[in-house]
Amino acid sequence: MKMLGTKEKIPVQLTRQLGLFDSSMVMVGIVIGSGIFLTTGIMAKYLPSAGLILLAWIVGGLLTLAGALTYAELGAAMPEAGGQYVYLREAYGHMAAFLFGWILFLVYMTGGIAGLALAFAEYFGHFFPGLSTNTIILNQSIKIFHFSFHFTLSAGQIVGVAVILLLSLFNFIGVGFGKIIQNVFTVFKVGIVAAIIILGFAFGKGSHPDLTMNPGGLGLGTLFIGFGISLVAVSWAFDGWNNVNFVAGEIKNPKRNLPLALILGTLGITCLYVLTNYLYFYALPIGEVTGVVRIAEKATTALFGGSTGALISAVVIISTFGSLNGSILTGPRVYYAMAKDRLFFQKVSQVHPRFRTPGFSILIQAVWASILTLAGTFEQMFTFAMFIAIVFWIAATASVFTLRKKFPDLPRPYKTWGYPVVPIIFIIASLGILLNTLIEKPVEALAGIFFTALGIPVYYYWKRKR
């Protein structure tokens, strides 16, 4: 019996503080990391054709748009924190949703954060060599029973951890701080890349590339395999496009703003990526692009003369910093949703009463990502997780069919343009990328399945605790 004059304690909730511009900057800022500055030379090893590489970027952008159009319907219909976790839960049940959150926390999101932090440190070391990943602080062999482990700690790893903790602190004390950082760094890096493109075409020493699809006369099978491998690289460069859905519970008027952020963001990124790659081929013939990792630096040096290493290093530092902030902002909302379903530590479901952020969720993500940064072994695990991430993309996209049948009366302020063709195209193309990965990297693909399967007994543990 409740006493007169007493009040029930109402749990603190997340608040909607992100407008259309903020949401768009979250998406664009996460996607544009370091991939666009590094992948084209690697693609040219397997696909020695400027025309086909540009086509791969266009196709990758269109496929991402197909996914974005589908996620827009899901996000507008269920604008809750956790995004993809919620869609999988409502379509397939708690286990499917948990396994997505499990692999996201174990390595996909946290490993991505660790990778971005080390990429930041690598380019930061261009200006401060003593803080680079090449400056070794500790080099130690550790023997446990009959097993020997070699541990190396660099100054760059310490810098990476420091950046993770700093940005986690900013996102802990308010979405307002997080979105300001995101907006400033995203606008800045997009503006710099756009300026390089404009100045490169206006004043650069280059010539328009030969866009012949098969200048080397390669066999159709070789071109087909090379195009598939290139699409995998393009998918990596577009990775993170769906993360804005994780913060749907904090977007103002999500029924309108979330679909617009997904669609406008994807179109803008695709245009920027295609123009950047055209600039690379404007600066360098395909033979000089092949196998070059730091393609942006080589291309801008050819365009403007002298060395542009410092300029490109500064651009990558800004780019990775913004992408890192976006990942730190969005990821904890998935663990928060898991905890609200009592499938994770209950404290993770708590919202800070003053800052209105999932504070403990941000904290545990920062700790685990820092451990992966210090361990330096996350890269292979991240490759495993990328295979599974595409599996969950397919599952979430397919959920639009399941949910229309399961909940026909659910209000859908936005419905997928081109339904059912657009979602089907995304699913088929993603299956093709999965098959290509399974053939080219079977160990990594099977390891991804194994790491995901490890979450099944963990799910039953949490389910029993419920």
What does this structure look like?
With 466 residues, the chain is mostly helical. It has a single domain, classed as Amino acid/polyamine transporter I (Up-down Bundle), CATH 1.20.1740.10. Helices cover 69% and strands 4% of the residues. The chain contains 18 helices and two strands. It has a two-stranded antiparallel ribbon. Strand 1 (136-144) and strand 2 (147-154) form a beta hairpin. The longest helix is centred in the first third of the chain and has 31 residues, at 94-124. The protein is globular, with a radius of gyration of 22 Å.
Topology of helices and strands:
Layout: H1 20-31, H2 35-46, H3 50-77, H4 84-92, H5 94-124, E1 136-144, E2 147-154, H6 155-172, H7 175-203, H8 220-238, H9 254-283, H10 286-289, H11 295-304, H12 309-330, H13 332-340, H14 359-375, H15 378-406, H16 421-440, H17 442-453, H18 455-465
Antiparallel strand pairs: 1-2
Order of helices and strands: HHHHHEEHHHHHHHHHHHHH
Number of helices: 18
Strand order of the largest sheet: 1-2
* End-to-end Cα distance: 26 Å
CATH-level-4 superfamily name: Amino acid/polyamine transporter I
